[in-house]
Design brief:
globular; mainly alpha; 65% helix
């Protein structure tokens, strides 16, 4: 998650800043903490001796409203947009070089993940681990990479989007939101579900674009914009859920007829606007918290936490649910609540050595890289993006796809690699 690590810096469209922006850092840390906590606490798991059944505690009636705050990817994309706008200015608008630097930081931590997960399913199968639970874990590990695939689109488009922002300002996210409206209208009126995936671009780039407004100070000048965003966003989401075809949950739930996330819908865009408005309103109070030391510790470990928290969950699930045959209790019940401290302690103990071992891969090797061109930068982006997308769809389940995917990612890194200086 490259956005989790980028430094704040002044740009042509950004308000001057010194060092890091603690608000953006805080959004990243809180976002990652929410992702990990949610993924660790919502699974409802049972094993019958051969098949692992997975459910979601948030499918409990009425709990869907929690997802309007716990679905934090909008805030991560927003923080990414602000960080990209700021850091692009510091790069003296050298678009190709800026892009390949971010690409390396995005792709490099995937290498140890692939080094473990490509051979691991084959090894565990030979040791007698049941195939179905193993396939569930291997696929879910890859599916979480969807964020990286979409964020890479936003990073690659940043130089162009900043040009549009300099010329048209807030009209750019409005135009992208209009694209999201049109996409949903066509999707639901024609029944052609694949149309919805156009909103991967319209919805997430609109949220990313709102970060540009923050970067130049438009959301922090004390005007009514944050209030209007918070009230308008959450209000529009409530109307869309009440009177439209959208489910109330902002995460996908087992057995649901549709999801607001896959593909993204107008409802998740409305919630995104509400979250950004609310976060901006809370900014003065958040910045008064003693956050600097926690942020300094968490920053260099964010990508590692994102990539490895689900493998930690699979280890604990393998021991407790599959090995010991202890199904998770009914969500909301006394045993479920009482078991949380034990469950989270086991997960934390499993995660700690993963953080210690793999955080070193957050930074690419410091090598004498050559000068990037748009041709090499876009070629590398296409290779890495294609590899990440393949892993998102197929995961690390045994087969040829993950091998080809990681070879594409390696190819992209090689394109950005060191070159002989003539």
């Amino acid at each position: 998650m490259t956005v989790l690590l980028e430094r704040a810096a002044p740009s042509r469209t950004a308000a001057p800043a010194r060092g890091r922006d603690p608000f953006l850092d805080l959004l990243r840390v809180l976002g990652m903490a929410a992702v990990v906590f949610q993924h660790w606490t919502i699974p409802v798991l049972s094993f019958d001796g051969s098949r692992l059944t997975t459910g979601n505690a948030l499918a409990t009636p009425g709990l869907w409203v929690v997802t309007w705050l716990s679905q934090v990817m909008p805030l991560v994309f927003f923080a990414g947009g602000a960080a990209n706008a700021i850091s692009f200015g510091r790069a003296a608008h050298d678009g190709p070089q800026w892009l390949v630097v971010r690409l390396r930081r995005l792709a490099w931590p995937l290498l140890p993940l692939a080094a473990v997960w490509i051979p691991l399913p084959h090894l565990l199968l030979t040791l007698g681990v049941p195939a179905q639970p193993l396939e569930v874990g291997a696929k879910l590990t890859g599916q979480l990479l969807w964020f990286l695939a979409v964020y890479l689109i936003a990073v690659a488009a940043t130089p162009y989007l900043l040009g549009l922002h300099a010329r048209y300002g807030p009209r750019v996210p409005v135009a992208l939101a209009a694209g999201a409206v049109l996409t949903d209208v066509l999707r639901f009126s024609t029944g052609f579900e694949a149309l919805g995936y156009l909103n991967v671009v319209f919805v997430w780039l609109a949220v990313h674009q709102l970060g540009f407004l923050y970067a130049e100070g438009r959301l922090t000048r004390g005007g009514p914009a944050p209030w209007l965003m918070a009230a308008g966003g959450f209000g529009a989401a409530a109307l869309l859920v009440a009177f439209g075809p959208y489910p109330g949950s902002m995460i996908g739930l087992p057995g649901a007829g549709m999801s607001n996330m896959a593909p993204p819908t107008l409802a998740i865009l409305a919630v995104s606007v509400g979250q950004i408005g609310l976060a901006t309103l809370l900014r003065p109070w958040l910045l008064r918290l003693p956050i600097h030391r926690p942020l300094a510790w968490a920053g260099p470990r964010m990508m590692t936490a994102y990539l490895w928290h689900m493998p930690a969950l699979f280890v604990v699930t393998g021991v407790v649910v599959i090995g010991m045959r202890l199904d998770t209790p009914t969500p909301g019940g006394p045993f479920w609540l009482a078991g949380w401290p034990i469950w989270l302690t086991l997960l934390g103990l499993t995660m700690w050595p993963l953080l210690k071992g793999f955080a070193r891969f957050e930074e690419p090797l410091a090598l004498p890289y050559g000068k990037a061109t748009w041709g090499s930068a876009l070629a590398a982006t296409g290779l890495v993006g294609g590899g990440v997308l393949a892993l998102t769809v197929a995961g690390f389940a045994p087969g040829l796809t993950p091998v080809v995917a990681i070879l594409a990612i390696l190819g992209g890194l090689l394109v950005t690699g060191p070159r002989a200086q003539l």
